[in-house]
Design goal:
It is a single chain. The protein is an alpha+beta fold. The chain has two domains: about 170 residues, Penicillin-binding protein 2a (Domain 2); about 325 residues, Beta-lactamase, CATH 3.40.710.10. It is about 35% helix and about 25% strand. Strands 2, 3, 4, 5, 8, 16 and 17 form a seven-stranded mixed beta sheet that branches. A five-stranded antiparallel beta sheet has the order 10-9-21-20-19, sandwiched between helices. Strand 16 and strand 17 form a beta hairpin. Helix 9 packs antiparallel against helix 19.
Amino acid sequence: MADPQWRVPDVRVALVGVAIVFAWLWVGVSLYRVQVVESGVWTEYGAEQRVRSREIPAPRGTIYDRSGQAIAMSVAATDVVANPSEISDPGSVAQVLAPLLGVDQSTLEAKLSGDARYAMLARRIDRVDALEIEKLMDELDIRGVYFRDQPARIYPSQNFASQVVGFVQADTLVGLEGLERLYNEELAGTPGYQTDERDPYGNPILQGDSEIVPAIPGVDIRTTLDPGIQIAAQEALALAVEESSATAGWAVVLDVATGDVLAMATAPTFDLNDRTDVDRETFRNRVVTDQFEPGSTLKVLTIAAAIEEGVVTPDTEFTLPATLEIARKEYSDVGRKDERVMSVRDIVAKSSNVGTITVQQLLGNEKHWEYLNKIGLGRRTTSHIPGEVSGLLHPVKDWCDSVCGPSTGIGYRVNVTLLQMAAVFATIGNDGVWIEPHIIDEEIFPDGTRTTFQPIERPVFSQETARTMRALLAGVVEGGTGRRAAVEGYRVGGKTGTTQKYLEAEGGYSETAVVASFIGIAPIDNPRIVVAVVLDSPSGERIEGDRAVNLSYGGVSAAPVFAAIVKAAMHGLGVPPG
């Protein structure tokens, strides 16, 4: 029987059959690879094409003053963005948009030109304005311009406690200065997210998966700042800085009984909503960042320690020479050139350097340092006020046996912040008990719960010593160096301070620049507040009656600022004259 002969058509059929078999095998293997071996990879790839996820920003917490008025808050705003690749006529679009967005037309046209797919045109414009612009884009059939809702941070009171409140970065709302920075984590909250499935054109897939995890709003913060007292402090400081040509001025007002910071001001200040061209130095909260030698205001602690230890009484008298020389360093009193008998009461009222040093030598360095340390010098008063530094108090073991004690007794060799010194006087006003100064009253959480700040307290002096010191401080205003601190209708007490300014760059004291200060208590018989004021390098003169007075002295330039703030505070707090 003859072998069958393969015809050409048969061969073709066979080859096609073989090709089909191999093709199906290839398809099967590919399906197995895609659906089994690489299923996870392709599932993820598909999800990337379909599933869109976007962050839901958390509303940033609001900062309030003590009356409940918002001083930092978030509002609805809109970013205007563009896809330049969709814009056919950048010049015409820029001509329409530039005046609406308040930007330069040529700059805007450059952003809208080219093949880029994204350009930021304007950040966080008012939501109402954005809706009007969006409506106009639709009417003019302009494509490629988009509107994205974003929260914006605003400060309704503009320059109210600017250095205290601080501010955020415009695009991220991350705190950069002040309370906005210190409490950024609490204020920021926790962002949420929304996930859904969309087609290649961005339209939602009706049967697709969708998930929304809501954002958790930030914590609201209520401060202790009193709006009336804060504004009064800012205005009084601004006037004093202008009159005295001072480099800057700063002030703080403490509630004696609670440690609440009722006002904390620095001049010059700035508008938190517009920081264009503001010198970074202006952002500094000098009440807690700037250290200085307190001079005569620290004499009250020297005298108080000596009275507490029984070394002297207000009526103890000393025969004081015109000058006192210790280890070739000569100390003297301003305006006194002869020997004089002075009581401790006189020493405080007249701010006698020689008298204070005489008392300090009786007290001794060990006891003197003990009270300086107990009242908190050389360390921060609190961790709840942004930017605070610790100052400087040398360990007593490093004190020399000659001039270290005397110089410290009259306010040199010690670096302090104004907040630390205000706390010293508040201790005297609070019957000898030191209370931690604080600017946060409470935190209010999204669920409505609240936590109230609990300040640290510690006794420093006896009630009797504190009351004795208040009487001595009243004498400073009523017949001593602080007469310009008097407030009509109220009995007040305090202490002047004038120290030569130490210049770091020159490694020595300036012959002309001084730090002028006044710190006092009001009312002195029933203390409610402490007001502390510093002017940096005041100069010039003021005419009083028929004579000119030197503004470089704390009793001349800083004391009237104290009086102005006290007057406003007494009225604001409802303290009747008497």
